[in-house]
Amino acid sequence: MDDHRLGFLAPSSIIIGILTLLITGGLLFTHGGTLFSPGPLNPQKGQPIAGVASHADLKGNCAACHGGLLQKTNMDERCSACHIDIQAQKGDPATLHGNLEKKNGNLECRSCHQEHGGSLTDLSRAKVDHTDFGYDLSAHVSKLDGSAFNCKDCHKEDFVTFDSGVCMECHLQDQPDQMQAHTQAFGYNCLACHDGIDTYNSNFNHDAFAFGLSGKHAEVACIQCHQNTHSPADLRSAPTDCNSCHTRDNPHSDLLGTDCASCHTTNDWQTATFDHNLAAYKLSGKHAEVACTDCHVNHDYTGLPTDCYSCHKGDDTHKGQYGTDCASCHTEAGWEQVQPFDHNAFSFKLTGQHVNVPCTSCHVNNVFKGTPTDCESCHRDQHGGGLYSHCAYCHTPDYW
Fold first, then answer.
1. Where is the domain boundary, 105, 134, 163?
2. 198 occurs within a structural domain
3. What is the pLDDT of residues 41-93, one digit of tens each?
4. Are residue 317 and residue 360 in the same domain, yes or no?
5. Mind listing the pLDDT tens digit for each residue in 123-135?
6. Cβ density class 224-259: b for 16+ within 10 Å, e for less
7. Range of the domain at 393
8. Count of domains in the chain?
């Protein structure tokens, strides 16, 4: 046994041990980060923070993220020290990080952000309430090939923003004709109207809003009323008065105003109900049965004469003998319905048996003006001219 041993260690062993510690310490000092790193840092760049645009810029400075054994700060706290904007988002459920905090509690950064060779962002293990962002995923459970959707299918590499072009890529494969017509009509900002549960689709209940669809309106394509529409606000701003859409169809040239619904219904233009009693000229009797176009020729509704003779000149059997005031004798119940005529207002008064004589007995062929008033013109002389030629000398209208 060697008497020069120091305890159970030989001098050579001590020297080797010291050299090993020195070499190890030197390697740790110069290449420690490389020796113990599980992989390279992600080179993806973003907005620089304190001069660092990507984690790869940290190179071997492990202490920037990993605290020492004696330090009290954990890795999440070190992340927040740099990414102060993310820390602020955690208090707002409307942001991605706030939503994650709401659904997952105090979720560690590395649960989604796996450095050293892994994906910089992997949300597969995190719960996200997508409805908080205004888009429900219940209709996007599986893709066209039947496989399940994942975040990157729609968000690519950026989970904070979304490009509507992704919608086009998928839906053009399934509905090429519809998508082409739809985008031409409403533009390419799909999320402006679509919320994942198709609130504004073909099953949209228009009757739940102020302007319900009935009659022919129910058959009209949306774009015919909602032109240049790119958002729900644009849809709601569409005018609801008839004239805004039907000005070009108005044959009245605004002569009757712009309230089409006062006469027309949504069933068709031809079926119209106009309350003529609201106008200056009221309709009664036979006038109520006359077709509108009989009086309103060529859709002329203003300035029409309201006197009888202007319309009934051609029906005047009196040939103008009694003037043009037809209403002085006739009523709107019909030409035959003549008002009681006061013959006593004329030079030849009716008395006695003359009151019972039909008008046509004296007024033959509707001749009224110039009818003789002497007795002999109507009454044949029974005396053969042997007596006076004037009947009234002996007779009265009461009896012969």
1. 134
2. no
3. 888 888 898 889 988 888 878 888 887 777 778 888 888 889 999 888 888 88
4. no
5. 777 788 888 888 8
6. ebbeebeeeebbeeeeeebeebeeeebeeeeebeee
7. 343-400
8. 3
